[in-house]
Amino acid sequence: MPPSEVWRRQDAAEQATGLDPCPAGWPRPRLYGLPLPWITPVLDGVPYWTQIHGRRLLRCQQQWLCQVCGLVLSPCALVITDGELVTDAGLHHRCALLSLTVCEGLSLRMLLAVVARTDLYPLPGGPSPPWRRWRLHAAVLGAAAPVGGPAAARMLQEHQAPPLTAAHEQDRTQS
Ligand SMILES: [Zn+2]
Prior knowledge:
It contains 6 helices and 9 strands, in the order H-E-E-E-E-H-E-H-E-E-E-H-E-H-H. The protein is an alpha+beta fold. It has one domain.
């Protein structure tokens, strides 16, 4: 079955039954003991780990959603890159941590980067899956850190505890 066929059939089955085998949310549903990313196609109870759900990845790009949990990202997200993005969508810190912990396809040679939406540019041309390939702003790529190293660990940590927003600060000073 060609890759696009799997997720299209998954969507058709979801429409017919009203059941989503891999819904957005946290914690992630599991199959065979492994957490399912939101963009992994699942058809008839079988996860297609090496494939991508094209419509969902496109939604991640258009709506700034996390590829692992399908929920909206904060203005600063993480991406995993080896020069090119491994998958062209952002992740929450907890979701990046989950991916780096359980996903065999992610190697320690890869890099972790903190990005805002404006740091990502669609690449022109090429074959057209429903989603766009993204290019990272050079400065962001320059600040990317090897997965498993102390700088990447700090990125995950910093991301875990975002700075207080102005509204929070105001609450604190008023109370
Ligand atoms: Zn997430």
